[in-house]
Write a structure and sequence with these properties.
- With 275 residues, the chain is mainly α.
- It has one domain.
- 71% of the residues lie in helices and 0% in strands.
- It is globular.
- It starts with 19 loop residues before the first helix and ends with a helix.
- The model has no long low-confidence stretch (mean pLDDT 86).
Length: 275
Amino acid sequence: MPKDNVYTITPPKNLVCLDWGELWRYRELLYTFAWRDVKVRYKQTVLGVGWAIFQPLFTMIIFTVFFGNLAKIPSEGVPYPIFVYTGLLLWNYFSTSLSSASSCLVDNENIIKKVYFPRLLLPLSTAVTPLVDFGFSLIIFFGLSLIFGYVPCVIGILLLPVLLFCSFLTALGVGLFLGSINAKYRDVRYILPFFIQLLMYVTPVIYPSSIIPESYRWVSFLNPMAGVITMARGGFLYGIIDFNLLAMTFGISVLFFMFGLAYFRKTERFLADTL
């Protein structure tokens, strides 16, 4: 066999390194995993991809009735449906990605045990797949904005890829950590739904971050999604970018990703035995 066709598989020496060459060689497998997840998600459903529209829209209506109309939660001068939907837009992407990434190793146990491929492709694909739902939800957001006569600011549209990337890094980092633990301790699957629900209420999804006392507000922004949602509202609804908050959120997102990647790399070589 020619030497060029021989690949030596060795454990990574640096826990936070990424072998971009290897990931690029397996790019078609990443596409296959992502496309498989999209098809499986809507297989044998009546509404199909309509669920990507129905779920955030129905959630927005429920939150508007109970939190906007009954609890009278302030929305900073913006119609509450637009206010809460802006938060749900990125929160739903994050929660879906985190949930899928945390269970992807157990769900693909048979593949992991049979053949070698970069294991990182599995959580990567689960973080890419929800982008389809995000795209449909974004269309609904612009539709709602027209209905309520509220034109999103251009600054928010330009800022969106950065905020989406921060959400991607955070979800992937936490998902890598929880997925590695879930491979050994299956309790994660029971704890995770409660954890995500609890995290939503400590993240300013249904309320503005301005109601948090200023002396404690920085603590809430240690949660990257708090910064992401706050900046999404500032950009889309008011045309304002807080660059200090943006830098802080991006930095913390990178730290979450590096921590999750390091823990994943540390346990990766034992995955087949653990599962």
